[in-house]
Write a structure and sequence with these properties.
By secondary structure, the chain is mainly alpha-helical. The chain has four helices and two strands. A two-stranded antiparallel sheet has the order 1-2. The chain starts with 6 loop residues before the first helix and ends in a 7-residue tail after the last helix.
């Protein structure tokens, strides 16, 4: 029976060859790559919520600071109007007729 190297042994040899050729240039390239990916990830200017998701749910504030996401409010209480208190319904409307005393 022929002996074959296991997958772990092959991966170990591959990693050893990779690290054997590691030098200052490889360190610099790896540092640049990690820095670029981190910068793109943490400092991107993507909005907090996608515009398609909010198209029929809320109205954007007419004024906002540069680089900030807009303040969103429900369509039934747009900007310039007071907010509704509670759920906007009366308690009497939702009580059962036989429960009234």
């Amino acid at each position: 029976m022929a002996s074959s190297e296991s997958l772990i042994s092959k991966l170990d040899n591959l990693l050893a060859q990779l690290l054997a050729d590691w030098d200052i240039y490889t360190t610099g390239l790896a540092t640049l790559l990690v820095t670029y990916v981190g910068y793109v990830t943490f400092f991107s200017k993507d909005p907090d919520a996608h515009p398609f998701m909010l198209a029929r749910q809320a109205a954007e504030a007419p004024i906002r600071q540069p680089g900030e996401s807009a303040t969103l409010r429900a369509l039934d209480a747009p900007h310039g109007y007071p907010l509704k208190a509670g759920l906007g319904g009366s308690v009497e409307r939702y009580t059962l007729s036989w429960a009234k005393m």
